[in-house]
Task: inverse folding
């Protein structure tokens, strides 16, 4: 299978990628990977789909994580992660409509 791992070079992504060694894995990330993608940018996500082409599965292990007691976290701590997942969903929906 051709599997794309977003955040492949991160803490969790490295383990996910290693577990998929029997597959064709495309590593995607914001700085260093086979394909560069900014998960907070719809334009970057659209370019990502053009670069990668067809694939069988996508795993997302990316995002800004905030660590600490839940009671001390602010709304802004969750905003970037929520925005990224909404962007992926909208872009994927639009890609499916045009296919």
Result:
């Amino acid at each position: 299978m051709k599997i794309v791992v977003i955040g492949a070079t991160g803490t969790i992504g490295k383990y996910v990628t290693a577990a998929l060694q029997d597959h064709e894995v495309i590593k995607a990330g914001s700085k260093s990977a086979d394909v560069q993608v900014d998960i907070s940018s719809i334009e970057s996500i659209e370019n990502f789909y053009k670069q990668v082409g067809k694939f069988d599965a996508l795993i997302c292990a990316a995002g800004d994580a905030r660590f600490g007691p839940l009671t001390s976290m602010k709304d802004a701590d969750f905003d970037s992660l929520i925005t990224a997942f909404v962007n992926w969903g909208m872009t994927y929906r639009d890609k499916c409509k045009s296919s």
In short: The two ends are 20 Å apart (CA to CA). Residues 12 and 61 are 6 Å apart (CA to CA). The chain has three helices and four strands.
